[in-house]
Amino acid sequence: MESPFSNLQHLYSRKEVLSNPSPVPKAHGLYAWFFREVPDGVPVEGCLTLEGLTLLYIGSSPDKKGKADSAQTLQQRVRYHFQGNADGSTLRRSLGILLAQKSGFPLRRVGSGKRMTLTSKGERWLDAWMEENAFIAWVEHAEPWTLEHELFQTLPLPLNIQGNKHRPFAAVLTGIREKAIAKAKELPVVLDTELRS
Prior knowledge:
Number of domains: 1
Structural class: alpha+beta
Strand content: 15-25%
Number of strands: 6
């Protein structure tokens, strides 16, 4: 199948997505993340590229059939990836872990110790990195999980793990994430006064 993201006219920046009103629709659908800078070690062979940007991750809202009536829309999900934290966004967690050597902000237990984020300073660092390097596109779709599954079969999407285990890097990324989580559990809890929800 041809990717719905092959002939895009525009990729949206963090600033555009977080503007009011946001261009991202309050609808169900699939979203695709393109990156200017690719974190070290992430394979890009065969990845879809557009104007020097590389497609590394897709997501859907809702992400499975049982959530067809989910209240969470494309707009809510995409905006959270751009401004939330690594505890609530798989994409932010993977990016934060892969970029930790560059940023100096590894994954940490914060607040009560039940959540793991990059700390408020680390999340702000990742915001700035995403402002420069992360761009988004989307397609509205009534059953986006079906389209997502089809794309997993045809496109390399190295930052996806769930539903993408047939790709070798999914196991590598899982291992990298597990090591970062184990390390965070060994370190003291950060009493972060600026925690994001």
